[in-house]
Amino acid sequence: MLVFWKEKLVFLAVPKTGTTALEGALAPRASIVLRDPPELKHSAVYRYNRWLDPFFEKAGGQKMETLAVVRHPVDWLGSWFRYRSREDLIGHPNSTRDMDFDDFVNDFCRGTQPPHAAVGSQAKFLLKPDGSLGVDHLFQYEQQDKLVAFLEDRLGGTIEMKRLNVSPAMELEISPKMEEKFRRKRPEEFDVWEMGARS
C-alpha cells in the first residue's frame, strides 16, 4: 500500500496485478509505504474502510481517494499458477508444479479450495458487501497506459516502471469448457474486471 498524503491518494495493492513494480516506481514519492506484513501491504477494501480510512481522516482531517488495479481473471489465475510452480515450492501444499492449468482453475472454483488454489479473490478485495465498487479509481492491468497517465497527472512527473516479482515464464491455456465453468461459478471475478474498464 502506498499513501500519497499531499495528493490525497491511497494505492491499494491487489496481489498479482503488478503492484511490486508500481511500488518500486512510486515508493520514493509516497508519504507512507506499507510493505509488511502482507496483510497490511495488501489491505483489501473492507480492511481499509474499517481501520485505515478513519485513521487517515482523523489524523489529517482529509478524505483520501483510493486507487487499485484489477487483472483479467484468467490471466490473474495464470500468474498465481506460474508463481506457485517455482522451484522453492516443490513438495509444498501450495505447489502447482506438474499440475494442469485447467485443474488449477477447477480447484479455484470449488467451494472449499485446496491449498494450492487458495489465492484469494479480486472481487472480495475490491467490492463492498453490497457488490458495489469500493475504490474511487480502478484500472485494468491490461491498460497500463491509462494507469500511468492518471498517476503522472495526479502525482506530477514521469513514471518509469520496471518488471519486478515476475512469475516464471510458461505457456498456459484454458479450455473453452473450463473458462465457461469459471465464468459461471465465479461471475463476480469477471464483473469486477469489467468495472475497471468503466472507471
TrEMBL record:
Keyword field: Kinase, Transferase
InterPro entries xrefs: P-loop_NTPase
Domain of life: Bacteria
Record keyword Kinase present: yes
Gene3D superfamilies: P-loop containing nucleotide triphosphate hydrolases
Record-given protein name: Gamma-glutamyl kinase
Entry's Gene Ontology molecular function annotations: kinase activity
